[in-house]
Write a structure and sequence with these properties.
By secondary structure, the chain is α/β, with parallel strands linked by helices. The protein folds into three domains: 68 residues, 434 Repressor (Amino-terminal Domain), CATH 1.10.260; 134 residues, Rossmann fold; 133 residues, Rossmann fold (3-Layer(aba) Sandwich), CATH 3.40.50.2300. The chain contains twelve helices and 15 strands. Strand 12, helix 11 and strand 13 form a beta-alpha-beta unit.
Length: 356
């Protein structure tokens, strides 16, 4: 169960150099270094080697070896997990299917892929708990999450175990985040504004539905949407967003409220999920004048909305490219860790009734 790394002691010969100095040089936490130098095998072999290298660089002369685990998975196998959101969502079903197909179609040597869904909508403590728990079983993680301290702490925890975490679809600000894979969300928001400005039959008020204000990707889309109208000086007023938690039923109720109470409502931009609820409300109310509607992701529901003319434009991830890029990024980051955050910006597709 254990092996020895020659020259690794459970205690330091040169007392004047501190554990903190070794931790700083190894870019690990003090707690992790303490576990290694005291022979507690709760860290991976690679972590122990990093501590050994840092300590030796500081001039230590070791006398007793540190035990490390030898029952870990082979270094040739990289176990990657994708933590997606709601299983019931058509979009996440499509993304999961594309990830599986990509792993089979263009297999990366020595890479195994697992996909899990987190059905508790973006709840930071539960996302963080899931991140920590999968860290005991995998080598690299891609996650869809909102910005929060618990999630940042979990990312840092995994980074200390040399498990890279990549933000999928929506970026995160954690300094220990290894990478981001997704679209340019600000550009997507500006593209939505461009479409509504041309599809609306008159200037007026514009409704915005957003899943969560802590969802950086959606926040960037809203910023891009507003910036377009500010920059162009067009006679549209972008209303304060309604938070729908990407839930179709909540989006339906909020859209009904917009349609019934907002004077001169000329357009709706749904920043995230719940597009079917917006579509249902528009079709139910049947406004006397056209309300332009732009949303994200091509699903059976949004495809039908485009065909019916209720949806003017859909902005959708290039899922094959996203899956391929995210898989490659995880494998590369695990095999060749980078001191700098990596980013892969994939294209998004634009769909209208004429090209679906």
């Amino acid at each position: 169960m254990f092996d020895d790394l020659p020259g690794n002691p459970p205690s330091l010969v040169k007392r004047r150099v501190t554990v903190r100095q070794i931790a700083d040089k190894a870019r690990l936490s003090v707690a992790t270094v303490d576990r290694v130098i005291n022979g507690r095998t709760t860290v991976r072999r690679g972590t122990a080697l990093r501590v050994q290298s840092a300590a030796q660089a500081l001039g230590y002369q070791f006398t007793v070896p540190v035990r490390v685990r030898t029952d870990e998975a082979s270094a040739e196998i990289v176990k990657c997990v994708f933590l997606l959101q709601r299983r019931a969502s058509s979009f996440y079903q499509q993304l999961a299917e594309e990830l599986e197909q990509s792993a089979q179609r263009d297999p990366l040597p020595g890479v195994q892929v697992t996909i899990e869904h987190m059905d508790d909508y973006l709840e930071p403590p539960k996302v963080a708990e899931t991140l920590r728990s999968v860290g005991e079983q995998v080598d690299a993680v891609a996650v869809v999450a909102t910005e929060s301290n618990p999630v940042s702490d979990a990312i840092e925890f995994l980074a200390e175990q040399q498990i890279p975490v990549v933000a999928l679809l929506s970026d995160l600000s954690s300094p220990k985040l290894a990478g981001y894979a997704g679209i340019n969300n600000r550009m997507a928001g500006r593209s939505a504004a461009w479409a509504i400005a041309r599809c609306a039959d008159r200037p007026g008020n514009l409704g915005v539905l957003i899943g969560s204000h802590n969802y950086i990707g959606q926040e960037e889309r809203e910023i891009g949407f507003r910036s377009y109208f500010r920059e162009k000086g067009l006679e549209f007023k972008v209303l304060e967003p309604s938070v729908c938690m990407d839930d179709p039923e909540i989006a339906y109720q909020q859209t009904l409220e917009l349609l019934r109470t907002t004077d001169e409502l000329t357009g709706i931009y749904n920043v995230g999920g719940g597009a079917s609820g917006v579509l249902r409300a528009i079709e139910e109310i049947k406004p006397s004048r056209k309300v332009s509607y732009v949303c994200h992701e091509l699903t059976p529901v949004t495809r039908a909305g485009l065909s019916a003319g209720t949806i003017d434009l859909v902005l959708a991830h290039d899922l094959p490219e996203l899956a391929r890029s995210a898989l490659k990024m995880l494998a590369d980051l695990k095999k060749a860790p980078s001191a700098r955050k990596q980013s892969v910006v994939v294209p998004f597709n634009i769909y209208t009734s004429e090209n679906i």
